[in-house]
Amino acid sequence: MNYSREAPSKVTIIRYEKKHLEQLMTYTLADEQRRYTAMPLDALKKCEEENNRHPILIMLHESCAGFFVLHGGEGARNYSDNPSAILLRAYSVASDYQWRGIASTSLKLLPSFVKYHFQDKNEIILAVNVANLPARSLYNKCGFIDTGRRMIGKKGELIIMQYQLNVHNNPTSAI
């Protein structure tokens, strides 16, 4: 494991392309983290089956440091009554890239990314397991707010969180 700390300013988020598949094939997560999120290859399969699921990579320079899916349509409607919401799901940072500020940096880039690539969206929503305290803290620190809504998921109670997109910000500022 490489313990050197990279500057979070080198973090970008991009749409997945097939050329990144090889990097995702070696993607690792600790068992405790796998308990709460999908592995990228499993999530990619679902993205191929549903055109409203969009795989996204968190890059550190040219290396894939993380992965998530932005899910519109019916996926988002399961968590929000807002027809202009998009769901953040399967979010993770690979084991070798944790504790470098990559997660918080990527989540801070996310609103601009969504406003640029999904211009009809005005809200990002997510569901986080009540027991996943590190993730809850991270999302809260990055501006996601507990909606007060709860659901029961496969692994227990989920907290529904949201991030309202400000339409007055420049959507290309952090792309």
UniProtKB/TrEMBL annotation:
Quote the InterPro entries the UniProt record gives: Acyl_CoA_acyltransferase, GNAT_dom
Pfam families given for it? Acetyltransf_1
> What positions does the domain N-acetyltransferase occupy?
11-166
- Protein name as annotated: GNAT family N-acetyltransferase
